[in-house]
Amino acid sequence: MRNQSGDEDPMSGAKPRHHLLIATDITRFSQRDEAAQILLRKVMYQITRQACDTAGLPWHTLSPEDRGDGILLVSSRAGLETFLTTLIQELRAGIQAHNRTAQTADHRLQMRIALTDGYVHRDEYGVTGTAVNSLFRLLDAEPLRKQIQEAQADFGLIVSDSVYQTAAGYHLIDPGSFSQADVDVKGTRLTAWILDPMPGREA
User: Fold this and answer.
1) Contact 145/111 with Cβ under 8 angstroms?
2) What range does the domain containing 117 cover?
3) Is residue 179 part of a domain?
4) How far apart are the first and last CA of the chain?
5) Cβ pair 29, 145 in contact under 8 A
6) Any idea what the Cα angle at residue 32 is, between residues 29 and 37, rounded to 5°?
7) CA 128, CA 106: separation in Å to the nearest integer?
8) pLDDT at residue 93 above 80?
9) 20: which residues sit within 8 A by CB, 6+ positions away?
């Protein structure tokens, strides 16, 4: 397709589809030595893949993208109830199980997780779109970082306002277990909701 000037329209191939998006991030990753980074990356992938398997989410359908100290997963098939219940619960359980046997503080896994939904465009390089950008703004939100640090939690979850409102409306979550947060990252301002922390060394 050509535009009015006769040039190829770069947007003619854009076919956005609605997806659920989840991103993980290992906290203080760059502050650990290389051996610890290698170990925690391996553990992160093991826990995430196992959680996806248990939740009935085939790994290849999630188009996983490696982010060094995290993973991006995108699904147009799974329902929000699967992401917010089984997947999140299994991720948390996997992190806690690892930390019960961690030999040093540097080998303990603390993970931030962000969840949103929206329209994204998929091409041979991966996915792009406003929803992807918003997801990583949520993941970098200072209120989430502060919560994990102050609570010494192993696990922190932040969800977009749209996910929260839908999940609360369908009784997929206890609204009282989330606290509202204002996110302001790289010029992007969002309303989000953070799951109230559980102590990191509870187990």
Assistant:
1) no
2) 17-195
3) yes
4) 59
5) no
6) 65
7) 33
8) yes
9) 74, 75, 76, 78, 80, 83, 115, 116, 117
